[in-house]
Design a protein that fits this description.
Length: 353
């Protein structure tokens, strides 16, 4: 007798319809879909719903910006949740809270963890206590860092079989190195609250090399930007060429504020699959991907001198730089490929159900 297919509902914090269309046309990668489109290969029916599926764009935009934040934006769709065996999401905490209050146990809520430990904090405030209670009632947790898995196992020993480290996936069919000259000497990617560009600019301001920052300049207006730094936005397709042209990739991080312990995950796996020597600020999550001196270089957070030394070292040592890039790509192919990670996630879904 054929077993019933598991039905998984993905909840994203941003509209994904246009992204999926671009992916289907080969213009974007599917790393941010967390394996959703691959689940059918493993016998799982995976879908997503969002306001835009039911309302005009203007109405959805109004609700998103003026009434519902990313944690509650799926709340109007709550009755549809119970048609699924699993809800899988990195956010939607407001909807998760309401679902937990209702006590509906048939549908398992699996949290995709970017910062659960950070949100729990010291567990003293009312918000932290409520969040801790909510996490304890979750059907499962997928972490993207090994240390986060270990910490959560200690916090919630009764959930030990429901917590699993599954690495951040990379779309290895999209991110393929191109045969172009490496005329970008140093590349850094991303603009978010966890990027430490103050330290990065201090480290490269007096280096006589071309530096490219892929991101929005207006978010850096409070910083003194060195003259050798070019800041531009690139499409996903353009990033393939940008990565290929880079000699080294630098990911400067500062997670001291505790707003996202997994910061830098998508960039590091992209850089690795593109075969780049990558320098990353040392964080617990980054240690799950970069083995210092083997698949990349780890430097202390906020240390511009150590960062500069690491950049100069790689720029002056082509053999070491190329070896790191080869090792990084091999590691990514063997461990971070979208199909490999999707299989692990599908196995986890089956275990939870």
């Amino acid at each position: 007798m054929q077993s019933k297919k598991i039905k998984v509902l993905y909840l994203f914090n941003q509209p994904r319809k246009s992204d999926i269309s671009a992916i289907e046309n080969g213009r974007r990668h599917e790393g941010h879909l967390y394996g959703m489109r691959l689940m059918k290969k493993f016998g799982i029916e995976a879908r997503y719903i969002e306001l835009e599926n039911f309302l005009p764009n203007w109405a959805s935009t109004f609700l998103r910006k003026s009434i519902l934040n990313i944690y509650f934006v799926h709340l109007p769709l709550l009755p549809l949740f119970f048609n699924y065996d699993i809800i899988f999401t990195p956010t939607a905490f407001g909807s998760q809270f309401v679902k937990t209050i209702l006590g509906f146990k048939k549908t398992k809520w699996i949290m995709y963890d970017f910062n659960i430990v950070g949100w729990i904090g010291n567990g003293e405030t009312l918000k932290q206590k409520v969040f801790t209670w909510m996490v304890s009632k979750a059907g499962g947790i997928v972490t993207i860092g090994k240390e986060e898995e270990q910490v959560l196992n200690k916090m919630f020993p009764e959930m030990k079989e429901k917590i699993q480290f599954i690495p951040y996936a990379v779309d290895d069919s999209f991110f393929v190195p191109q045969d172009v000259p490496e005329d970008i000497i140093i590349l850094t990617v991303g603009i978010d609250s966890g990027r430490d560009y103050k330290t990065f600019f201090e480290a490269c301001c007096d280096l006589d090399v071309k530096v490219v920052l892929a991101g929005d300049q207006y978010k850096l207006k409070k910083l003194d930007i060195p003259k050798n730094v070019e800041i531009r936005r690139f499409s996903s397709e353009e990033m393939l060429t940008v990565y290929s042209k880079a000699k080294i990739v630098v990911i400067p991080l500062d997670i001291s504020k505790g707003n996202n312990n997994a910061m830098g995950g998508s960039t590091v796996v992209e850089s690795m699959i593109m075969g780049k020597a990558t320098i990353v600020s040392k964080t617990p999550t980054m240690e799950s991907y970069i083995k210092d001196g083997e698949t990349g270089v780890l430097v202390p957070q906020g240390d511009s001198h150590a960062l500069k030394k690491a950049m100069v070292d790689l720029l002056q040592n082509d053999e070491k730089r190329k070896k790191l890039g080869i090792n990084a790509r091999n590691f990514a192919i063997e461990n971070l490929s979208k199909n490999i990670v999707a299989k692990k996630l599908a196995d986890f879904f089956n275990k939870i159900v």
